[in-house]
Amino acid sequence: MEHGQGAQRNGQWSPPVPPAAPDAGAGRPPDTATAGRTAEAAEFTDITDIAEQLRSLTRAQQRLHSLLDAVLAISRELELPVVLHRIVTTAMELVDARYGALGVLDESGERLEQFIPVGLSEEEEAALAGVELPRGHGLLGHLIHNPEPLRVEHIGAHPNSSGFPPGHPPMRTLLGVAISVRGEIYGDLYLTDRRDGLPFDAQDENIVVALAGAAGVAIENARLFEQVRSGAESFQRLLLPRLPDLHPFSGSAVYRPATAPGQLGGDWYDVILLPDRSCAAVIGDVVGHDLMAAASMAQTRNMLRALLYDRRTPPSLVLSQLDRTLHAITESPVTTACLARIEPEGDGWCLHWSTAGHLPPLVITPDRKAIYLHADPGVPLGVDTRQPRPDHTHPLPGGTTVVFFTDGLVEHPRRPLDVCMDELAEIAVAHAGEPPDKLCRILADNHTSDGHDDLAVLVLRTPDAPA
């Protein structure tokens, strides 16, 4: 039976069956707009994923660059306290931590002998005044005995947590990493509380572990630097004399090595009492900062003693004789020097001196007036033995202070020399009443130079009157 025709069933008439409605999609092409929107959504999702991946890659690159910059910044430092502090601040910057600290282990490796906290406000530091620094208990002790990276989301809930002392700021999250030097645990780096409030994640851990590796190298370099500097200073001091009893004069000398690693300075000094009751003093500077300069300094000083002690010879002639002798028997480098004799004269004293390209002495009178004895400096030793050397004299009342010094005390590459020397004179006048040994230390501690060269200071003070 076709659609639209009736049918007779059991003697009854049935209405015709209406034709079925045609399929909406049958017989015509698919809806291209809907398909397009689906494809666009999928494409947008892909682009979003790619953009997020690119952002993640950019963040990773930025972190890597920050880590490299941090490693370079740490490796530039050579002073151990500065290195340790820089490690903490750098780690805090890399993971955006609010607080950080570095605990240095003692020789036993069981306790902390040094704890360097960073990030505390003035109010927080004041609240902790008088509280003993951590020694390695609780979570800190856990990291000491288990030197694996440690991430804690809730410090208070950790089974090894021992709480905080009164006044300590609240801290919730922790990232702890051990720092090794030559395969031995040197200490532990602690970071707490990311500023965004989230716990530290695996990326934070990885970057701090990488920093800790570089930190170990930087710490070892700083320790080696300290050893080299200490050895150089000890060697230098062995070459310099210990001043004898200068009675009736009083005097003192200070030597400070250069700050650059491995540099042996050529600065030197000497003071001796002569048989004629005069006091002879010399200060000088051998050009160079190596073993040869130090050896030449010792040789020059010893030779000068032999030329000076048993004869009353003007300082200029002694320097000329020294120059000729050094030229004849050694390959001594260029050396500057100031040689002086303080001799009795009437009721007072007279300074008789000659220089070989050296800075002038500074005189502080009993009434605290400063005078630089500027005069013809002559040529340094080792330049031209034929050049004449002038002598100079200056009266010294009893109680006068004479300061001899090397250029390492006053030379600064970015400041005029006369300005630095004026500042030195002001410091000397302000402390002229101090004993020579204390005055020496004050001048050395408050030098007006950049500190990159070694320095020597020699202070002599005349008695009230010749005996």
TrEMBL record:
Alphabetical keyword list = Cytoplasm, Hydrolase, Iron, Kinase, Magnesium, Metal-binding, Phosphoprotein, Transferase
The organism sits in which domain of life?
Bacteria
Q: Please note every region of biased composition (Low complexity).
A: 22-40
Q: What is this protein called?
A: GAF domain-containing protein
The chain positions of domain PPM-type phosphatase read 249-462
Q: Which cofactor does it need?
A: heme; Mg(2+)
Chain residue ranges for the region called Disordered: 1-40
Q: Does the keyword Methyltransferase apply?
A: no
**The GAF domain, residue ranges:** 79-229
Gene3D superfamilies in UniProt = 3.30.450.40, PPM-type phosphatase domain
Any GO BP? detection of hypoxia
Q: Which GO terms describe its molecular function?
A: ATP binding; carbon monoxide binding; heme binding; magnesium ion binding; nitric oxide binding; oxygen binding; oxygen sensor activity; phosphatase activity
Q: Which InterPro entries does the entry link to?
A: Bact_Sigma-Reg, GAF, GAF-like_dom_sf, PPM-type-like_dom_sf, PPM-type_phosphatase-like_dom
